[in-house]
Design brief:
- By secondary structure, this protein is of the alpha/beta class.
- It folds into 3 domains: about 180 residues, 3-Layer(bba) Sandwich (FAD/NAD(P)-binding domain), CATH 3.50.50; about 110 residues, FAD/NAD(P)-binding domain, CATH 3.50.50.60; about 110 residues, 2-Layer Sandwich (Enolase-like, domain 1).
- The protein is built from 16 helices and 21 strands.
- The protein starts with a strand and ends with a helix.
Length: about 475
Amino acid sequence: MTETETIAYDVVVLGAGPVGENVADRTRAAGLSTAVVESELVGGECSYWACIPSKALLRPAIARADARRVPGLRHSVQGPLDAAAVLAHRNYETSDWKDAGGVAWLESIGADLYRGHGRLTGPRTVTVTGPDGELTVLTARHAVAVATGTTAALPDLPGLADVKPWISRDATSAQSVPGRLIVVGGGVVAAEMATAWQALGSQVTLLVRGKGLLPRMEPFAGELIAEALTEAGADVRTGTSLTSVTRENGTVVAVTGTGDRIEADEILFATGRVPHTDDIGLETVGLEPGSWLSVDDSLRVPGTDWLYAVGDVNHRALLTHQGKYQARIAGAAIAARAAGVPILESDPWGAHAATADHVAVPQVVFTDPEATAVGLSLAEAEQSGRRIKAVDVDLGSVAGAELYGDGNRGRARMIVDLDREVVVGVTLVGPGVGELIHSATVAIAGEVPISRLWHAVPSFPTISEIWLRLLEAYRDN
């Protein structure tokens, strides 16, 4: 018979990924006792199956592509990547899927870790089933924060489970390179994994149901990436859906809506995410299992005074950095309420409001070329009813990009709110632009007037000079 222990804390956090870790860090810093519950690895999806391993796979691919465009260097890097070395380094970056470092960090901030499956079993109560079946009941005096993230969504295709398809976790953790890989999807995961595995030696076929890649970004971003993938040898097919997938004698056979038959060694479905809330006891507190959790700007679930949902699980912005930002806001709000400090609902940029989720969410797609955006796209700006002006500039107009050897492969767009004379959206595609997007994020979040941006002088010759070109285009058009 399993013995049950009940322990009280100020805060209980469900999920020890980067988001849960940040909630715990902020509540512990405020002097609140905090328990963290994790059923897998401390560090979560980002550390072991998403951000870190995917970028470890992509960095050699992008570095080689950049080098091949530089005169005097391109002939020295014509051979294949050392796939074994790339995979070994990816393993190193994930600590070989061991979480001793994450556990030590939690201990260093004074949070208590409970290994096992945590479920809400009533208001302010989480029951943890440990690895050996032991039960521990954790009660929260002030808050329970759900930071359980998302899982991969798979389409409803008959017999798909028998095919044993890859999801994003398989694509970032595979220990060998498949000779042929089908990638289904057109979003960030599909574009990045197609880039990585094509560079590592797979023959990639990318099947995109929509008109192009990266549908949430400006159309030119997806067009430039699709062009580069095609040049690298990938087969990119847009407007393509699947009617069936089978595995015959170890070979994946995919049939498209037009009757084309595609064979491969593996097939990756990168077709979206669903909330990891199906078995965390939401029904015990009046919420729908498997649902996204709606929150206010302090990340608290409406109708409760104790339940918070932070990170991907609330569907505001499925990005690690944005989830960590939300965690900082949630931690501050939990601490303030625990101390009886009033939260000013009228202060949108205060310490207790995740306002950036609405106006300045940056994202980088680590493909060749890189694509990054923050704020509104042109379509979103037009739909918002604002009076806006959009200006486009080729990245090749700045010397910093030209020095990469292929400065013409890139484009920038800036969108200005004409009534307020502030930037509300920026998209950049080209070499090295991932390190440039924070300046755009600052401009948008800070509502820096266009007149003041003229005095922010970009260094020469850097790609950041694109800001000057955009301002000039705005002035002259």
